[in-house]
Amino acid sequence: MSLATIQCCAPIAREPLSEGDAAELATLLKAVADPVRLRLLSMIGSHTGGEACVCDLTDAFELTAPTISHHLKVLRTAGLIDGERRGTWVYYRIVPETVNKLGALFAPLAEPATV
Amino acid sequence: MSLATIQCCAPIAREPLSEGDAAELATLLKAVADPVRLRLLSMIGSHTGGEACVCDLTDAFELTAPTISHHLKVLRTAGLIDGERRGTWVYYRIVPETVNKLGALFAPLAEPATV
DNA sequence: GCTCTAATTTGACATACATCTAAGCCTCTT
DNA sequence: AAGAGGCTTAGATGTATGTCAAATTAGAGC
Fold first, then answer.
1. C-beta atoms surrounding B83 within 10 Å
2. Min CA distance, A88 vs chain B (Å)?
3. Ranges for the HTH arsR-type domain (chains A, B) (predicted)?
4. Treating both helix axes as pointing N-terminal to C-terminal, what angle do B35-46 and B65-77 enclose, rounded to 10 degrees?
5. Which of A66, A101, B43, B92 is 20 to 30 A from A85 via CA?
6. If residue A96 lies in a helix (H) or strand (E), which one and from where to where?
7. Is residue A114 part of a domain?
8. Chain B contact for A22, CB < 8 A?
9. pLDDT of chain B, 115 residues: tens digit per residue
10. Residue A7's CATH number
11. DSSP assignment of A22-72, as one string?
């Protein structure tokens, strides 16, 4: 790691995003830019075993099952979660690699060391 | 820092977000969940001196000045950038604290150490 | 096979949003 | 003070999106 990598700002502020990268990242960000989907994501990720049943998620909101299902589909299409049917129920879990993409985009490259 | 903080997942996956926190974060994320605004943010942040003139930004897109102005306003309202008029031109710069909020939300709490 | 529950899909609707044109405001220059 | 350039605001319009009700698929158990 060179000194050049030590600076104050996130990767998004290091160099201009290409049009293509921006479009791809915007799609990912749109998926999480909703209060219900943020809560779904955090509920799935923090649930025991790292996975949650749709039934648990639906009960936690004052929304209909189709609406929750819609939001889960948006998250799954974006690659943020992955679903699996086991018997009667469907379980979702987080895809950490995709979440990390967002973390990398906004994470500061270094702490404000001595300053 | 205790051992408990060393785990695989981002803070969003640590515990369920409250309704209020989710709403606040969603507002912030909506501001960046647009390809034009992502590029604006990265162009401003990576520009020499950490600030960019609106004129530079407008020329970089095939969009009208009012549209760019609108996007800048969205970013500014979200607290992601801050603008200042100096003479004829208006300069924008990034507000790192706000960007860091997003970084903190999605950043893994620890590297996949030995695994 | 039939029924019940879990979850998704479809279609409709109201709202939110990205974009443009036209108009207005601020600053510098002449 | 009058004009010109830079930027924002206001209003209009087409598209995208969040939500629900109704219909559909899938599995479990009787």
1. 15
2. 25
3. 17-114
4. 80
5. A101
6. helix A96-106
7. no
8. yes
9. 544 444 567 899 999 999 999 999 999 999 999 999 999 999 999 999 999 999 999 999 999 999 999 999 999 999 999 999 999 999 999 999 999 999 999 988 655 554 4
10. 1.10.10.10
11. HHHHHHHHHHH-SHHHHHHHHHHHHSGGGEEEHHHHHHTSSS-HHHHHHHH
> Phi/psi zone of residue B50: left (φ > 0), alpha (ψ -120 to 50 degrees), beta?
left
Block residue for tokens 């974060």 = B25
**Measured CA A108 to C1' C29 distance, in angstroms:** 44
Residue A112 falls inside a structural domain: no
Q: Does B17 touch chain A (CB under 8 A)?
A: yes
Q: Cβ contacts of residue B39 below 8 Å, gap of 6+?
A: A16, A17, A19, A22, B60, B61
